[in-house]
């Protein structure tokens, strides 16, 4: 009888030890899991050259001041729309003729999807625009891609109109 009680106590102790070993807490953050270089608080993922400050409005170079700087995407897509080609080609020509110029491509997604999925989708959209610019003459060192996912919506709302405006890539030229 006494041997049976010792066996039960040993089995119970092993069970607690096994459960405690399986319930360890991870010390990794989401950014470590993604394998990319993400900002610590913003949830943004970047690639390319770093440290760009953005120019806007009248600060834009004259050659690109009148061009579209926000490019929209279809739901769950990262393909550059045909309607964006002319302006993107003009941006690429400007970058090719001004090697000191640099641009940051900020990829965004609408609120649907998980945070991780939207970060990846924003990055795919930014990379699609980056590839378009580089194929048309821009240098890879001039382009930085950053993804905010759903973190910085252009429009607040939960309908198709606001979602359409939030699925975008914004071009921001760096300060000189």
TrEMBL record:
Residues 1-19 form the signal peptide. It is found in: Cell outer membrane. Its main location: membrane. Gene3D superfamilies: OmpA-like domain (3.30.1330.60). CDD domains: OmpA_C-like. SUPFAM superfamilies: OmpA-like. Keywords: Cell cycle, Cell division, Cell outer membrane, Lipoprotein, Membrane, Palmitate, Signal. Residues 25-52 are annotated as: Disordered. Residues 60-176 form the OmpA-like domain. Residues 30-49 have a biased composition (Low complexity). It is a lipid-anchor. The Tol-Pal system is composed of five core proteins: the inner membrane proteins TolA, TolQ and TolR, the periplasmic protein TolB and the outer membrane protein Pal. They form a network linking the inner and outer membranes and the peptidoglycan layer. PANTHER family: LIPOPROTEIN YIAD-RELATED, STATOR ELEMENT OF FLAGELLAR MOTOR COMPLEX. Part of the Tol-Pal system, which plays a role in outer membrane invagination during cell division and is important for maintaining outer membrane integrity. HAMAP family: Pal. Belongs to the Pal lipoprotein family. This is Peptidoglycan-associated lipoprotein. It comes from Marinobacterium rhizophilum. The gene is pal.
């Amino acid at each position: 009888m006494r041997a049976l009680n010792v066996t039960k106590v040993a089995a119970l102790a092993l069970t607690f030890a096994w459960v405690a070993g399986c319930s360890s807490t991870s010390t990794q953050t989401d950014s470590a899991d993604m394998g990319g270089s993400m900002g610590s608080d913003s949830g943004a993922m970047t690639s390319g050259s770093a440290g760009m400050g953005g120019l806007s409005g009248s600060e834009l170079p004259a050659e690109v001041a009148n061009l579209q700087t926000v490019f929209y995407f279809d739901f769950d897509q990262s393909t550059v729309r045909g309607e964006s080609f002319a302006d993107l080609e003009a941006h690429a020509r400007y970058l090719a003729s001004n090697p000191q110029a640099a641009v940051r491509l900020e990829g965004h997604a609408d609120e649907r999807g998980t945070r991780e999925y939207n970060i990846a989708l924003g990055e795919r959209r930014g990379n699609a625009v980056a590839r378009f610019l580089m194929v048309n003459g821009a240098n890879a060192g001039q382009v930085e891609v950053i993804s905010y996912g759903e973190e910085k919506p252009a429009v607040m709302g939960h309908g198709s109109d606001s979602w359409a405006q939030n699925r975008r890539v914004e071009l921001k030229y760096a300060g000189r």
